[in-house]
Amino acid sequence: MWFYSDKVKELFKNPKNVGEIKDADAVGEVGNIVCGDALRLTLKIDKKTEKILDAKFQTFGCASAIASSSALTEMIKGMTIEEASKITNKDIAEYLGGLPNEKMHCSVMGMEALEAAIANYRGGILKRETAGDEKIICKCFSVTDKKIIRTIKENKLKTVDDVTNYTKAGGGCGRCKPEIEKLLKEFWEKEATKFVWAKEEAKKKLTNLERISLVQQTLEREIRPQLKMDGGDIQLVDVEDKKVYVKFLGACLGCLSTGVTLKAFVEAKLREFVEEDIVVEEVKG
Fold first, then answer.
1. How far apart are CA 117 and CA 255, in angstroms?
2. Are 246 and 236 in contact (CB under 8 A)?
3. In sequence order, what are the residues at sequence separation of 6 or more whose Cβ sits closer than 8 angstroms to the Cβ of residue 214?
4. Buried (b) or exposed (e) across 195-223, using 16+ Cβ within 10 A?
């Protein structure tokens, strides 16, 4: 059974900004009713300041889709187009106090509707990063490789189930799952190659800013995902030359084995990917 935050329940039962702006300055439409989810976003924009004066939505979907759409409209009212363009599906999910993994595709749909509306306002065609020619991977839900690759990148997805939760691809007949697995493998192999190259380049001569950047990358890529699998987490507090200060969170907080984790795992990973003589210390409290 899925857990919904109070905010999701509130915006599902009493959604805000439902409807359509008749003289809209921007319109964004995503999804397909046949596939189960669809969203139409309309915006009223001040032409001089490019500030979003009003936002309304019409959606066909589940409670999470309605709540995500309502949350999006609340978030962007009062923002400029430039500010709104930086909103991600993670921002929408966080505004709602979180969404079940199986419903994250609803926040992605909201982000895509906003992007489509901004592109419509600017009179251009929405362009997104892709790899190779775009093609439909999931025929059940008309999900392309372009969307899958982008979602993998932005949300650091690692499994086919993750991709299904965020895009719905693979959630129908399941025949596309091998292709999704292939996209995952190819993407992360390329990322690993880029990361190793950056690591080797950085090792040649690290400034403190470069060291901080590499430490952050290693925490995000190599350390946090492993800790989060067991309900834990870690936060970078400070970097002073070759001494790194971190704070454990979640299930790691107060755990009797954090000392071992700190040296045998965290410090070992940072020495592998940053510098061989780096030292890690835990900040408590």
1. 47
2. yes
3. 198, 199, 202, 206, 273, 274
4. beeebeebeeebeeebbbbbbebbbebbb
Maximum average pLDDT range among 116-130, 201-215, 259-273: 259-273
| Residue 106 designated active-site | yes
d(CA 171, CA 140): 8
Q: pLDDT tens digits, residue range 61-101?
A: 889 999 999 999 999 999 999 999 999 998 999 999 999 88
pLDDT of residue 130: 42
154 pLDDT more than 50? yes
In the residue annotation, 255 being an active-site residue is answered as no
Marked catalytic residue, from 106, 138, 176, 252:
106
How would you classify the pairing of strands 136-138 and 143-144? antiparallel
Total-model pTM: 0.57
Q: Higher model confidence: residue 61 or residue 11? A: 11
| Alpha-carbon gap, residue 109 to 111, rounded angstroms | 5
Structure tokens at 91: 């921002």
The per-residue DSSP string of 12-43 comes to HHS-SSBS--TT-SEEEEEEEGGGTEEEEEEE
At residue 203 the predicted structure's pLDDT band, cuts being 50, 70 and 90, is low
Farthest CA pair distance, the chain:
63
37-45 and 26-32: which strand pairing?
A: antiparallel
Q: How far apart are the first and last CA of the chain?
A: 35
Contacts of 56 (CB under 8 A, 6+ apart): 17, 18, 19, 20, 21, 41, 42, 73
Domains of the chain, first to last: 6-121 (3.90.1010.10), 136-200 (1.10.10.1100), 205-282 (3.30.300.130)
